[in-house]
Amino acid sequence: MANALRIGLAGLGTVGTGVIQLIEENSALIARRAGRPIIITAVTARDRTKDRGVDLTPYRWVDDMGELATAADVDVVVELVGGSDGPALTLARETIGAGRALVTANKAMIAHHGAELGALADAKGAPLKFEAAVAGGIPVIQGLRDGAAANRIDRVYGILNGTCNFILSAMERDGRDFTDVLADAQAKGFAEADPSFDIDGVDAAHKLSILASLSFGAEIDFAGVDIRGIRKIIAADIAQAQALGYRIRLIGLAEVDGENGGASLFQRVQPCLVPLDHPLANVTGATNAVVAEGNFSGRLLFQGAGAGDRPTASAVVADLVDIARKETGPAFSIPTTELEKLPRATAAHRINKTYLRMLVADRPGVLAEIAAAMRDAGLSIESLIQREVADGSALIAMVTHEAREQAVSDTLAALAGSDSLQGEPMVMHILAN
Amino acid sequence: MANALRIGLAGLGTVGTGVIQLIEENSALIARRAGRPIIITAVTARDRTKDRGVDLTPYRWVDDMGELATAADVDVVVELVGGSDGPALTLARETIGAGRALVTANKAMIAHHGAELGALADAKGAPLKFEAAVAGGIPVIQGLRDGAAANRIDRVYGILNGTCNFILSAMERDGRDFTDVLADAQAKGFAEADPSFDIDGVDAAHKLSILASLSFGAEIDFAGVDIRGIRKIIAADIAQAQALGYRIRLIGLAEVDGENGGASLFQRVQPCLVPLDHPLANVTGATNAVVAEGNFSGRLLFQGAGAGDRPTASAVVADLVDIARKETGPAFSIPTTELEKLPRATAAHRINKTYLRMLVADRPGVLAEIAAAMRDAGLSIESLIQREVADGSALIAMVTHEAREQAVSDTLAALAGSDSLQGEPMVMHILAN
After folding, report:
1. What does the similarity note say (chains A, B) (predicted)?
2. Using CA atoms, how far apart are residues A127 and A118, in angstroms rounded to an integer?
């Protein structure tokens, strides 16, 4: 059997210890499948003394993380430090710069610096792999890069954040409001103390920008993702959506838009209403799922655990097996320098059914005012529910017929400042089936 | 850009013409992703004159299929002739024997001769790839071989035959009986004139045996698959299953059984009751879906079009891209000679909930007789529906509590020959969630 592939592991949080456990537990079968053993030789983390539940004594401890980039006993650096910049980025640059393979689970770093790191990796002939950066244990990077390689991919979308899906599923199950469920999720460790990266959609946007790049052969444009999170969803939204035949999911969606002559890139993370017979409607809890629509394959769905130490370790080590097998090509499927820099698509011409929910004053004329604003904007109603809520207000929830997003904006602009409305209206698009 | 990868295409049915269309339509993006153009140079089929809706004049026509194995203008042979033996097998042996890459969509040939062909391919250093042989356009072979490579896979199962799923979905939707729906599906071209390979479970068993081999590192044992099809399912089964909270799906399931000391291989294709909240319950129409349970990844689901010219072509060309990239290892992930020859597992000790449906004489004492047989076998009832049907018979449908399969066999043995039963009881296991 060929020489072992030697790993230097930076970062010993839950995923790092998961990688150690996996490589120890499955070492024999990994060696058979990879054609050579994969072994950890060196490890580094901030705190050497912390008890992580794994025995670190077999591995050389490295105090200076940067040393892994050039250490003589390391073939591949696994970066699990996290953070888009700082030490993780420095380590990545130095590792790839030294012509050495880098495996990372760091979605923020790839979303922000993927173009630079990919170009460097291509120039140095160094593998750069990040299966674990998107959708945890689901091999979707590989599914897009290899499995769907024959297809022009028209659209990629999915449930990319397990925390949000956990919260939305719990709201659905228990009829509780967002704040309630979040507090509960935090208490149980399913959500971070500072949950904003998750619930405001930033984490999903990181992943979406990576998926879009791979799917469309476009340069990553994280800053071009239109991001909305789930904070403003109330229990009544969930209930009305259900009454109308939908479930609410935080959806990241990217597609190449050909509307204005040349191709442009549309990327958005937002809560959507998903029809009950769409596969994503049945994705509950912390599960992730990604749909890619190829021009020959049709709709492909990849589903599994979106986070967690063991699933994420599974993705990290899948990358290591690829490297051991020398089955690694350009980081973004085509050479990074060939990725197209697509302009950003606008949304106004996009056609959707739309869910609108407003809290309004419970007095005569309010519905007439809203209906008139919709009529003037060319927005028509498919179904509508109005019901009284406490303290003399009413809740109006409706799904419109298909219309350009401009019509929705126009409606809301016409109603802005009206004293009939109590608070901001909630707008969510319906995911097409 | 490197030299083109030159394809010799054998078989010009719907999938063959799909491959031609795909390679023509997506040629530019395939060349970018593969790092080199993929072009068809030679084609062969039985009938040169047939109008297939594609222009064959750019390709050299070969009368003698066997010529492709050694033709000077061919790097890879794509075998889409079909049939487990005969010309397809001869072509495969000659191609691989000549040290040349073979891509095939031929599940029957791989199920029957995969061990021989894989060993030959390994010995000759010739890639042998068959993504299109399992689950059409879904990149599940790759998902198991690469994406899940770090995992010990404990169980692999799924919906592997689109025709059966189409029929079961239609029975569900329309409340019609099997024979009715089959005739309709045949008229519409969704089922073959001779549908037995599909509806009797043989096609699903071919695919299952391939998935099992890849998942467990075991030698393919198609003959070891316990196969039951969907012919005996009646409309009442679908209705009772729904009333009890299930949908009926033809499930192929394989796992390594550790019950009797050493590992043994359990493989079965049979209609099962799938709980409504299981992802496979929501797979409708001709869609396929495969679940693999890894010891680190957890449950991975791959879903998409299980057949059709375009999806299957997508899988064929994905293999060609891998070959163009030189990302090909052993056909079965580990060297074929290292695949374990696992003994076949028995079923009697397996623990399931079970659905039992019987048509019985509608007179006093019948339920008592059945209940006594169950009691004696140690089989208890979770839920039961009895209702009158036409002509003085009654239908009894029940779901048992978890029990060893032996208890079900013992019950049926005790009731065999009883004049209370009208026809054979229907037995389907509940898929565990």
Report:
1. Belongs to the homoserine dehydrogenase family.
2. 9
Packed helices A309-324 and A27-34: angle between N→C axes, nearest 10 degrees: 30
CB atoms within 10 A of CB A215: 25
Distance CA B290, CA B286 (A): 13
Please give the pLDDT value at position A1.
Answer: 52
List, as one string, the DSSP characters of A331-382: TBSB-GGGSB-PPBPPSTT-EE-EEEEEEEESSTTHHHHHHHHHHHHT--EE
Intervals of CATH 3.30.70.260 along chain A: 351-430
* Tokens of residue A8, six digits: 């230097």
CA distances from A158 to A169, A253, B19 (A): 15, 7, 28
How many angstroms from the chain centroid is the CA of residue A305? 13
Residue of A1, A15, A33 for testing the chain B interface, max B β-carbons within 10 Å = A33
Query: What is the distance between the alpha carbons of residues B119 and B204, in angstroms, rounded to a whole number?
Result: 24
Separation of alpha carbons A412 and B186, rounded Å: 52
- Which residue from B373, B414, B391, B331 is spatially nearest to B114, judged by alpha carbons? B331
Q: What is the mean pLDDT of residues B293-299?
A: 97
Considering the candidates A129, A188, A207, A341, report the single residue annotated as catalytic: A207
Residues B362-374: pLDDT tens digits?
999 999 999 999 9
Q: What is the per-residue pLDDT for B262?
A: 83
A50 is a catalytic site residue: no
- Pairwise CA distance, residues A280 & B233, whole Å: 29
Q: What is the percentage of chain B residues whose pLDDT exceeds 70? A: 99
Using CB atoms and an 8 Å cut-off, which of residues 367-426 of chain B contact chain A?
Answer: none
Q: What is residue A188's predicted lDDT score, i.e. its pLDDT?
A: 81
CB atoms within 10 A of CB A253: 24
How is domain B351-430 classified at the architecture level of CATH? 2-Layer Sandwich (3.30)
**Positions of CATH 3.40.50.720 in chain A:** 5-133
- Which token pair is B344? 């076949």
Q: Are B296 and A26 a contacting pair at CB < 8 A? A: yes
Question: Does domain A5-133 correspond to CATH entry 3.40.50.720?
Answer: yes
Q: How would residue A315 be classed by pLDDT, with cut points 50, 70 and 90?
A: very high
Please compute, for residue B238, the number of CA atoms within 13 A of its CA located in the half-sphere on the CB side: 22
Confidence (pLDDT) at B1: 52
CB contact under 8 A, A296 and B310: yes
Class in CATH terms, B140-305 = alpha beta
Q: Which of A58, A62, A54 is nearest to A19 (CA)?
A: A54
- When scoring A144, A172, A297 by the number of chain B Cβ atoms within 10 A, the one with the most, hence best to mutate, is A297
Intervals of CATH 3.30.360.10 along chain B: 140-305
Residue (of A26, A103, A169, A145) closest to B297 by Cα position: A26
CATH number corresponding to A140-307 = 3.30.360.10
Q: What is the DSSP letter of A325?
A: T
| ipTM metric | 0.96
- Sequence-distant (6+) residues with CB within 8 A of A298 are B137, B304, B305, B308, B310, B311
Tokens 């953070």 found at = A83
Which residue does chain A place closest to B296, by CA atoms?
A310
Residue numbers in the known binding site of B for NADP(+) are 10-17
CA distance B218 to B152: 12
- Kindly list the residues from chain B whose CB atom is less than 8 angstroms away from the CB atom of residue A146: 139, 142, 146, 318, 321-322, 327
Place of tokens 């492909």: A300
Do the beta carbons of residue B279 and residue B245 sit within 8 Å? no
